[in-house]
Design goal:
This protein is an alpha+beta fold. The chain has seven helices and eight strands.
Amino acid sequence: MSKTVADVMTNNPVVVRPNTPLKEAIQILAERRISGLPVVDDQGKLVGIISETDLMWQETGVTPPAYIMFLDSVIYLQNPATYDRDLHKALGQTVGEVMSKNPVTISPDKTLKAAATVMHDRSVHRLPVLDTTGQVIGILTRGDVIRSMAAD
């Protein structure tokens, strides 16, 4: 019998809210040695995910988009909107300002193989697990999948 997401996921994961201070989220990640946290609203519905990648902007800062001057006009070689988004992440003070919105999710009844395929195809390291009402009931990481494979 093939394993399901529910068999392997971490139940009742630690979650944060959009108004959680970044310092608090960083503390949780460091103390628990985890790389990401689901972000939920006051009803417990998933609104985003905050990961180490989102937080790296705090340390690395942002490089302004490359541009060239031509006849007194600025021509951007990269999309300036990307710079605006990255700048927001670098200067953010709350989880909501730096989190990634619309995270890829999965339901607990999916097979582990299906979850692994989603993770691979979408290049994500973790999948929040949602029940039928949209509540976060677990989280599945690449590490969970690998440990399950090793246990077989």
